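Hi, here's the filled form for the chain we discussed.

Project: internal
Contact: R.S.
Residues: 408
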Amino acid sequence: MSKYRFRYAINQMLGKRLIVWSAGSVLLFSCAVTPINQPSSNDTFRIALFNIWEMSTEKLTNIDSQGLGQEEQLSAAAQIITEINPDILVINEIDHDIEALKAGDDLDLNLRRFLDAYLPQSEYPYTYIAPCNTGFLAGKDFDNNGMVATDEDRGSRDHGGDCYGYGAYPGQYSMAILSRYPLNLAAAKTFQHFLWKDLPDNLLPRDWYAEDEIEVFRLSSKSHWDVPLVIGENEIHLLVSHPTPPVFDGDEDRNGRRNYDEIKMWTHYIDGDSVLIDDQGNRGGLARDESFIILGDLNAAPTGDTVVTGQKSIDQLLKHPKIQDCANLLISEGALNGRTPGPPDYVENRTSGKGKWGMRIDHILPSKNLQVVRGGVYWPDKTRDPEGAARVQKASDHRLIWLDIMVE
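And the returned structure, exactly as it came back:
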């Protein structure tokens, strides 16, 4: 049983935010292309995902005497969020301020800093933050470089290589949920501590890790969260994660295998597999026909490499019978760069550091019993909207993606 306790306060009228410590009928349809970036209405809610490059404590504490943020990158990201105006937003790569946590502050401090300094009018009364594995040392030589990293190595790659999830310091590359709708925190689940060896048919490279390392090695490089979203009388499970990139390793392919299994965990979860045990000691996954949305920078592209199974990591989700892939909605003028629109593999939502179109690794994947009506990628064409195009380049190496989903 996890030692983390739930604690939350609900008071929407006073604008208090929800935080947590970690720990009907089925409608079948296909997505239709509606490349119109119009705001959500009373009949729909808008859900978005944005990996905002390295939202560090240093950046988030750079404010003026009026409390306004001074980072051009974060200002650009905030402008994009304001323009798209999502009702629910999942952020990847927002650091936790672990030192402030030790001093008695809350784990959501950096998220509050971002909202206060860059999105003061955003009206997100409900938020969710939980611990992640990034940057927490295990006391093991996970990277097999002949040394066991200590706190004195903080800030180095040696430190990150011996952590449960790569991070040069604790809390790096973490996650957050912001919502205008209530979150059922009492039913939220986290899988920060679930062991890789306990996933059925796992691809753990046993020739790389020693037996004592296998006994403690966690599956999630950050964490896996199930946070129920409450809309009217309905609950939709937000399944959030940020698997490790399938690179920065060797022939053992330990990161590629881990990425595959971090994604595979969601297939077990949406199928209700009783083998999964969350951080609170509860066993199992979703009940049959429950609605869900899988969100995150999954670091897995339809055009990516296969692993030893002969399957691409993301195909475990894109080809799952309970999941709809709305890639045909996630289009933008900026991604095409003069190309003719083609299959989803050619409509990308991430760029390389040089600004060229790259792989589609950010995903919003709803269950098939949810009706998606429109979606898009915030990526203006540089000839038609040079200011918007410059804004996305400044904000992150990823693009904000969004879907509008019908409210029953």
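Let me know if anything looks off before we file it.
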